[in-house]
């Protein structure tokens, strides 16, 4: 008979409380004990799994977040691609008026002749006169225009030469903050990020003191690609600032920027993030 009787069966509970007041709290507690045991077991299993796997999940998330921040920190922020495209769209083609060249007047250089006595001429004077005649031939050929007009409407060649302006282009020393062709690191963006990561040295004193943050360094890419005028734009700490300046000054020569087809000096800003791991 004992084998056929299940202690977990509700009948066992009914036998115990037969003829007794079932509204008493003990009956309800015993009746719900199985559900409470199951719920408690599920909660213990969940908490155990969380204690085992949650630290690993959090550690992986922190490592991935740090890697993403490090990569974003080395991205160049000075030139906005969208702004560049808008500026290019806003630039309207300039129409250069074409004015026909003026008609030159027909001109012939006339040399005044004077009669001088033979006694006043010396051998040295004759030699100087010969040299002067040679120079005079060249000057006559340069000031003579036989293809011009003779009706008075032409422009005298000498007057035209006097208005000529020296069009030799002066060296452009202006520093451009926006250029049509941006200066670039040899090898491209990925090569620049890799170079910065490989050559960055975290100051030991800053590491021991727990100092970290983002330092922004501005500099000028010269026409020959060299880096000059390196300055800290956004400071964090003098230890990190010095390392950021040293890192930028040590970069190899860049490919310089261009404006209207000409090589120009261009300003560039490089953010460098110092992160303790």
Characterization of this structure:
- This protein has 277 residues and is an alpha+beta fold.
- Among the domains are: 10-61; 80-89 and 170-274, TonB (TolA/TonB C-terminal domain).
- It has helices at residues 10-16, 25-73, 81-90, 123-143, 157-162, 189-199, 204-209, 238-249, and strands at residues 175-176, 213-221, 227-234, 257-259, 262-274.
- Strands 1, 2, 3, 4 and 5 form a five-stranded mixed β-sheet that branches.
- Strand 2 (213-221) and strand 3 form a beta hairpin.
- The longest helix is centred in the N-terminal third of the chain and has 49 residues, at 25-73.
- It is elongated and about 155 Å long.
- It starts with 9 loop residues before the first helix and ends with a strand.
- Residues 76-83 have low confidence and may be disordered.
Write the layout of secondary structure elements.
Elements: H1 10-16, H2 25-73, H3 81-90, H4 123-143, H5 157-162, E1 175-176, H6 189-199, H7 204-209, E2 213-221, E3 227-234, H8 238-249, E4 257-259, E5 262-274
Parallel strand pairs: 1-5
Antiparallel strand pairs: 2-3, 2-5, 4-5
Percent helix, as a range, is: 40-55%
Instruction: Estimate the global geometry from the Cα principal axes.
Output: elongated
Report how far apart the termini are: 70 Å
Instruction: Look at the structure and give the mean pLDDT.
Output: 75
Q: Give the strand tally.
A: 5
Instruction: Output the radius of gyration.
Output: 46 Å
Strand content: 5-15%
CATH hierarchy, class of the domain at 80-89 and 170-274: Alpha Beta
Reported CATH architecture of the domain at 80-89 and 170-274: 2-Layer Sandwich
Q: Major beta sheet, specifics? A: 5 strands, mixed
Q: CATH homologous superfamily name of the domain at 80-89 and 170-274?
A: TonB
Q: Give the low-confidence spans.
A: 76-83
Number of helices: 8
* Helix and strand sequence: HHHHHEHHEEHEE
Structural class: alpha+beta
Provide the CATH topology of the domain at 80-89 and 170-274: TolA/TonB C-terminal domain
């Amino acid at each position: 008979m004992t084998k056929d009787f299940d202690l977990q069966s509700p009948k066992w509970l009914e036998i115990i409380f037969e003829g007794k007041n079932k509204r008493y709290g003990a009956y309800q507690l015993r009746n719900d004990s199985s559900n409470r045991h199951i719920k408690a077991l599920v909660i213990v299993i969940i908490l155990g799994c969380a204690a085992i796997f949650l630290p690993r999940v959090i550690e992986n998330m922190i490592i991935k977040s740090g890697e993403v921040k490090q990569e974003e920190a080395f991205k160049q922020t000075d030139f906005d691609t969208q702004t560049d495209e808008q500026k290019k769209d806003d630039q309207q083609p300039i129409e250069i008026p074409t004015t026909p060249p003026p008609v030159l007047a027909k001109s012939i250089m006339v040399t005044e002749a004077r009669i001088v006595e033979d006694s006043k001429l010396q051998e040295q004077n004759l030699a100087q006169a010969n040299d002067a005649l040679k120079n005079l031939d060249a000057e006559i050929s340069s000031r003579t225009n036989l293809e011009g007009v003779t009706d008075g409407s032409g422009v005298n060649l000498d007057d035209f030469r006097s208005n000529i302006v020296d069009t030799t282009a002066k060296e452009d020393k202006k520093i451009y903050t926006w250029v049509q062709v941006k200066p670039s690191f040899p090898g491209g963006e990925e090569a620049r990020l890799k170079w910065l990561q490989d050559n960055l040295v975290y100051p030991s004193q800053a590491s021991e003191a727990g100092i970290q943050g983002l330092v922004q360094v501005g500099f000028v890419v010269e026409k020959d690609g060299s880096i000059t005028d390196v300055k800290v734009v956004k400071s964090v700490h003098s230890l990190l600032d010095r390392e950021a300046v040293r890192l930028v000054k040590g970069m190899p020569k860049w490919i310089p920027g261009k404006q209207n087809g000409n090589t120009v000096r261009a300003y560039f800003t490089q953010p460098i993030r110092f992160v303790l791991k």
